[in-house]
């Protein structure tokens, strides 16, 4: 080899593979590295092997035992274009797991154990063109699951267990050309779910247990009008699984008048229950209709912050994924534990399906025992009259209406007793005041004195009216006049002489003035 041959080969390598220099970190153990590609498949790996060259564009990690992707494990591989993780044991994708792979074009996750897709699982994959999720254990696709994939063209979801596709699950997929939902458990699909797919060219819906009712009427009409261009001859065989009279018939062969729904009817028995404080309560709401109605409970009056809310579960089991009340069982159970006054009030059981909705009210009253009433009663104010030990409730409040009849009667009697006591006290006070006004005072009481800084009081008889130079009135005390006139002498028979026979004369009143 000529002396300059190694240098020439190095230059040629850098020219052809600028993102994968030959002096990179090398290959992970047991992996093969070539032409910006790393193959680590079928090695029983449990974690992503360290030492993957930073310039890798294609990474094969299929047929291993990867159970999860550790946070940040793929962050250094910013040059990835294709990532193959199929046939592993991945159970979940952490939000932002692929955030650093902004150049990724193809992601294969087929044949794993994914049960759900979290919001943000595909954040950062703005350039992704193909996403393979077939052969997992997905049960439902929630709203905005694929919102971060604006350039996605192929979405493979076949061979899962998807039975719920929410209306906004495919929002943001305006570039999607192929959607494969075949071999799932879909019973229905809404028109709103497919509306975001403006570029759709291939749609696969076969081998699902379709429920051919009024909710699916739009799909048959849409396919007949123009949607059939999206379906191959095999994909047009959308077979009905129910109702029994339409089973094994093609949706396209059924007239629209045969796709019917029966609006729900609801039954709750009894419509009113009185429970004791601290008890548990279980109320069944039976609903019928076709398709099977979705049954939910709600409290009519919005509870305040911190008050308990009603929990709804299907009869005989826990609710399905999606939260309380999401189970389509036809029988919703209202469970209330450790009942308090906050639980009292009006509830509503609602059943809904594609044919409509029906509601039935339910009233819960909470009864208090005598001991509980004493515990809830406020302490009596000091120096007060007789006080009832019943807890006072405003008559128009929800808590008062929710109490039992016996408790309401006792509270009303206590309020009436308090009002009568207050009325008696007011009457006694008024009588005492009247007696004090009528009682005669001692001689000289109410006398008006003028204080001229001399000894002794004076009467109006000792005041002489004068005027000063400016005409202002002024009074001058004449001390030579007697202070009190001598009272009349009583006759031997007890009558007073002078003004009238038989009428006692009152002594003249003197008024004291203080200046």
Automatic annotation (TrEMBL):
It is found in: Membrane. The keyword Transmembrane helix applies. Residues 302-329, 371-390 are annotated as: Disordered. SMART domains: IG, IGc2, LRR_TYP, LRRCT. Residues 264-367 form the Ig-like domain. One of its GO terms (cellular component) is extracellular space. InterPro entries: Cys-rich_flank_reg_C (IPR000483), Ig-like_dom (IPR007110), Ig-like_dom_sf (IPR036179), Ig-like_fold (IPR013783), Ig_sub (IPR003599), Ig_sub2 (IPR003598), Leu-rich_rpt (IPR001611), Leu-rich_rpt_typical-subtyp (IPR003591). Pfam families: Ig_3 (PF13927), LRR_8 (PF13855). One of its GO terms (biological process) is positive regulation of synapse assembly. It is a single-pass membrane protein. The chain crosses the membrane at residues 410-430. Residues 1-26 form the signal peptide. Keywords: Disulfide bond, Glycoprotein, Immunoglobulin domain, Leucine-rich repeat, Membrane, Repeat, Signal, Transmembrane, Transmembrane helix. This is Leucine-rich repeat-containing protein 24. It comes from Ursus americanus (American black bear).
């Amino acid at each position: 080899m000529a002396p300059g041959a190694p240098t020439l080969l190095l230059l040629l390598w850098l020219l052809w593979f600028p993102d994968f220099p030959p002096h990179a970190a090398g290959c992970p153990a047991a992996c093969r590295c070539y032409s910006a590609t790393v193959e680590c498949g079928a090695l029983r790996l449990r974690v992503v092997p360290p030492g993957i060259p930073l310039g890798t564009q294609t990474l094969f990690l299929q047929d291993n035992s990867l159970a999860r992707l550790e946070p940040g494990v793929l962050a250094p591989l910013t040059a990835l274009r294709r990532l193959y993780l199929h046939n592993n044991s991945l159970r979940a994708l952490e939000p932002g797991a692929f955030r650093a792979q902004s150049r990724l074009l193809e992601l294969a996750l087929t044949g794993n154990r994914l049960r759900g897709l979290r919001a943000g699982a595909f954040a950062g994959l703005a350039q992704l063109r193909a996403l393979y999720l077939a052969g997992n254990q997905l049960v439902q696709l929630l709203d905005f699951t694929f919102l971060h994939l604006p350039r996605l063209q192929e979405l493979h979801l076949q061979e899962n267990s998807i039975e719920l596709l929410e209306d906004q699950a495919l929002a943001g997929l305006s570039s999607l050309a192929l959607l494969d939902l075949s071999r799932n458990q879909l019973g229905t699909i809404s028109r709103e779910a497919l509306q975001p797919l403006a570029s759709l060219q291939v749609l696969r819906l076969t081998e699902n247990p379709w429920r051919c009712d009024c909710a699916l009427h739009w799909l048959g009409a849409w396919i007949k009008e123009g949607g059939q261009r999206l379906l191959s001859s095999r994909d047009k065989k959308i077979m009905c699984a129910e109702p029994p009279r339409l089973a094994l018939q093609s949706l396209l062969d059924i007239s629209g008048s045969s796709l019917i729904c029966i609006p729900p009817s609801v039954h709750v028995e009894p419509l009113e229950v009185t429970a004791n404080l601290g008890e548990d309560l279980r109320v069944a709401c039976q609903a019928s209709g076709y398709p099977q109605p979705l049954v939910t409970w709600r409290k009519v009056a919005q509870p305040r912050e911190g008050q308990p809310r009603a929990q709804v579960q299907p009869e005989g089991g826990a609710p399905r994924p999606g939260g309380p009340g999401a189970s389509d069982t036809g029988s919703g159970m209202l469970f209330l534990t450790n009942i308090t006054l906050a639980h009292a009030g009006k509830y509503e059981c609602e059943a809904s399906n594609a044919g409509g909705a029906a509601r039935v009210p339910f009233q819960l009253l909470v009864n208090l025992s005598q001991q509980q009433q004493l515990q809830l009663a406020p302490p009596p104010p000091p120096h007060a009259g007789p006080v009832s030990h019943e807890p006072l409730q405003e008559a128009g409040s929800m808590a008062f209406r929710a109490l039992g009849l016996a408790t309401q009667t006792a509270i009303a009697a206590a309020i009436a007793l308090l009002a009568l006591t207050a009325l008696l006290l007011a009457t006694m006070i008024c009588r005492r005041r009247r007696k004090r006004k009528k009682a005669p005072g001692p001689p000289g009481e109410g006398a008006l004195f003028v204080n001229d800084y001399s000894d002794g009081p004076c009467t109006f008889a000792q005041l002489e009216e004068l005027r000063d130079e400016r005409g202002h009135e002024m009074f001058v005390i004449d001390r030579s006049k007697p202070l009190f006139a001598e009272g009349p002498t009583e006759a031997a028979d007890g009558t007073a002489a002078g003004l009238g026979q038989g009428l006692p004369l009152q002594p003249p009143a003197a008024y004291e003035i203080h200046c």
